[in-house]
From TrEMBL:
Residues 252-441 form the VWFA domain. It comes from the Eukaryota. Keywords: TPR repeat. It comes from Fabrea salina. TPR repeats lie at residues 70-103. This is VWFA domain-containing protein. InterPro entries: TPR-like_helical_dom_sf (IPR011990), TPR_rpt (IPR019734), VWF_A (IPR002035), vWFA_dom_sf (IPR036465).
Length: 451
């Protein structure tokens, strides 16, 4: 264990002996379960993650640790959901919801679990009316909070579940359309509209209106610069089936489907040294170890009054890279634009022309900063031009950002094909943001965060 050899089956070597020896075997077997939580490699595939979370769940239940057991149920639910095991996911999320109530979680957190339970139950075609009631409770809460973003997410999840169940989702989709027309959601507007158009097409296809359904599928694919990879793939698959059924040419659709598959990525991480603590860096390290594939390349850049390249684009190392955040003397400078431009140069210098699917690499720049730029030689207009030309995707984590910096950040992410802006008010929300980013970048991959 000192050498992190946690694959050994300790109890396999057990032989009957004195009570002290038996207890010692049990202690080491329990310790192995705990230590595995520090090793991301045990949570990178479905089978391994399932085994380790199940072992941890039993351990926490034996010790009466309901809060940790809730976490295990929640992550097991996410694991089953990724594998489309919706019945098992619903059971785990339901147990998570009940434990969250016992532990006096915020109503917002409990509502989040209600939505997950309802969605999984509908996708599993299990107890439609109970699932519908959970969705309704969640919508009422989000309406009371005037949280239109969560309303839209909930309505779209509800529409997907209703369609899976084989029911008519017209009422829910009409409500979604009303909100989308009445309110703009910034950089998320296109993602919401794509999901709406796709589900609208599915609903029409269920009713036998195939021509209208196909037009909605096409609209969900063609009319947006920024896209949801999963919805795009499903829309293309529906179009392919419709075209094949009517003996229409499918070459172009098949070609587009080829580009929806996962491909290697170049990822440049850029950190504002003022906000990068050891705790935050460890969260990003876990993100890199769990989400990033072995064929991907990663670079790390830090900045404040100067730009420092910690390492250039290179394959994900087997061993965790050590980086100690530095203490910076007080300075009025924060060279954000210069740092992002350096990231653009990194991905551009190592880019490949798309001559075949195997050679193409997606390019991503992920920035953690409060969003303020002071002292950069690079002008915002210059950065916009270089970023747009590069074709790279920009994800910006606005950590503790003030309102006045959000507009230029939104302009930057809108310039990129799959740009994303996440506003983080406190470090406790960073884990959820990294989960969102991982799912966004790797929509077809199964992975979990156990942090």
């Amino acid at each position: 264990m000192r050498n992190h050899d946690l694959d050994v089956d300790i109890m396999e070597h057990y032989t009957p002996g004195p009570p002290e020896i038996s207890s010692l075997y049990q202690v080491f077997d329990t310790l192995k379960v705990v230590l595995r939580f520090e090793e991301p490699k045990y949570f990178q595939d479905y089978t391994g993650a399932l085994l380790n979370y199940a072992q941890a769940l039993k351990l926490f239940q034996d010790y009466g640790n309901s809060r940790a057991a809730e976490l295990c149920y929640f992550e097991l639910g996410a694991l089953h959901f990724k594998e489309s095991r919706f019945e098992e996911a619903a059971t785990c999320y339901r147990n998570s919801m009940e434990l969250a109530r016992e532990q006096s979680f915020s109503y917002s957190e409990i509502t989040k679990r209600k939505v997950l339970v309802a969605k999984c139950m509908m996708l599993a075609k299990d107890d439609y009316y109970y699932a519908y009631s959970l969705f309704t409770q969640a919508l009422e809460f989000y309406e009371e909070q005037n949280d239109l973003t969560e309303q839209i997410n909930c309505l779209l999840d509800m529409a997907e579940g209703i369609l899976k169940y084989g029911e008519n989702s017209e009422k829910v989709l009409n409500k979604t359309s009303e909100i989308l027309k009445a309110r703009k959601f910034g950089y998320m507007q296109e993602i919401f509209e794509q999901r709406y158009l796709f589900f609208k097409g599915l609903n029409l296809e269920r009713k036998g209106q195939l021509k209208s359904a196909a037009s909605y599928y096409v609209e969900s694919i063609e009319n947006f610069y920024r896209f949801d990879a999963k919805i795009r793939k499903e829309a293309l698959e529906r179009l392919l089936e419709l075209f094949q059924n009517y003996n229409l040419p499918t070459n172009e659709i098949s070609s587009m489907l080829d580009y929806t598959r996962d491909c290697p990525k170049d990822i440049v991480l850029i950190f504002d040294s003022r906000v990068l603590t050891k705790e935050i860096y460890n969260q990003f390290s876990k993100f890199a170890n769990i989400a990033v594939d072995s064929c991907d390349r990663v670079a790390l850049i830090s900045f404040y009054s100067e730009i420092k390249t910690i390492f250039n684009l290179t394959r994900r190392p087997k061993e965790k890279r050590k980086y100690e955040p530095q203490d910076f003397k007080f300075s009025q400078e924060s060279r954000l634009y210069d740092a992002v431009l350096e990231g653009v140069k990194q991905v551009s210098a190592c880019s490949f022309k798309r001559t075949s699917g195997s050679e193409f690499r997606e390019q991503w720049i992920i920035v953690l900063s409060d969003g303020e730029d002071i002292g950069s030689e690079t002008q915002l207009s210059e950065l916009k031009a270089q970023l747009a030309e590069s074709g790279a995707n920009l994800i910006f984590l606005a950590y503790g950002a003030k309102n006045f910096v959000l507009s230029p950040l939104e302009d930057l992410v809108r310039l990129t094909p799959r740009g994303l802006l996440e506003r983080i008010h406190h470090k406790d929300y960073l884990k959820d943001s990294l989960k969102n980013i991982a799912s966004y970048m790797y929509p077809f991959k199964v992975f979990l965060f156990n942090c």
